[in-house]
Amino acid sequence: MRGHRHVCSVFKMKIQFAPMNLPLKRRLQTFAVFQWVFSFLILAQICAAIFVVLLLSRYWWIPALYACWLFLDWETPRRGGRRVEFMRRWRIWNFFRDYFPVHLVKTTDLPTNENYLFCFHPHGVLVAGGFANFGTDATGFSTAYPGLRPHLLMLPLWFRVPFFRDYLMCAGMVPSDKQSATWVLSRPGGGNVAVLAIGGAPESLDAQPGRHTLQVLHRKGFIKLAHKVGATLVPVYSFGENNLFFQVPNPRGSLLRRVQDRLQAFMGVALPLFHARGVFQ
């Protein structure tokens, strides 16, 4: 059921809790997804709050030292970041992969002497497919494409948040601005992959189950960039990405969509009102 009828039915349905005899493996999969959603929704705010609280406490010297480190390390995200391979291989990402499940389907070999711009579609609400395949090694990217190093591009805003920026870089993530992408794609010797969700945050507002609405026509900057640095464009499609969450209906021209568009233009971050099954359902 879709549209307004679905939203109304949500309030009429009783909550159906998951059976108590669910296997431990399934519970671990649910926890893995929960912590991932938690990380993307509020971990940045928590990290910023911890920084401020420590600064105002007797442990002020901890954020003070970190601020000095941050000053020296400020440009690192735009220079390829600081990936930590063992974190990309944490077992929790295997549970995350198996929850959906997520599969990486290889269709061709990619020589390691070139740099690549992976054009990821669609953005979806939280880019789950992009994270599973390129922010971790749970789906076997390093085995399928040995010698290639993926860098998932994210909004530059998140790399200004204390502590959170370091967490993102451990996964190989870098800012999605031109300077950062150029650095990755212009490295001599090849072997670097910049993964960009072409539709960006605005496309997340169109992520509805059963729909494939892409924002591509007015986004040609990535083509110019790849041509300028000599990188190869590789299309990547995440089937099922838009089926992961329901959104409150927000057709173009509606009051909700106008508010969302203005907030996105002002903050640079889209705010889709989404929902799905709960942790205990």
Describe the structure.
This protein is α/β, with parallel strands linked by helices and 281 residues long. It has one domain. It is built from 12 helices and 7 strands. It has helices spanning 3-12, 24-55, 61-73, 85-88, 91-99, 128-135, 141-144, 164-170, 178-185, 200-204, 221-229, 255-267, and strands at 116-121, 149-154, 174-175, 192-197, 232-237, 246-247, 274-275. It is globular.
Radius of gyration, in angstroms, nearest whole number: 20 Å
> Widest sheet: strand order?
3-2-4-1-5
How many H/I helices?
A: 12
> Structural class, from helix and strand content?
alpha/beta
**Fraction of helical residues:** 40-55%
Shape descriptor reads globular
Number of strands: 7
Order of helices and strands: HHHHHEHHEHEHEHHEEHE
In terms of quaternary structure, the protein is single chain
Q: Give the integer mean of the pLDDT values.
A: 90
Q: Could you write a compact summary of the structure shown?
A:
It is found in: Endoplasmic reticulum membrane. This is Monoacylglycerol O-acyltransferase 1. By secondary structure, the protein is an alpha/beta fold.
Please outline the helices and strands:
Elements: H1 3-12, H2 24-55, H3 61-73, H4 85-88, H5 91-99, E1 116-121, H6 128-135, H7 141-144, E2 149-154, H8 164-170, E3 174-175, H9 178-185, E4 192-197, H10 200-204, H11 221-229, E5 232-237, E6 246-247, H12 255-267, E7 274-275
Parallel strand pairs: 1-4, 1-5, 2-3, 2-4
Antiparallel strand pairs: 6-7
Helix pairs in contact: 2-3, 2-5
Features:
281 residues; alpha/beta; five-stranded parallel beta sheet; two-stranded antiparallel ribbon; 12 helices; globular; disordered N terminus
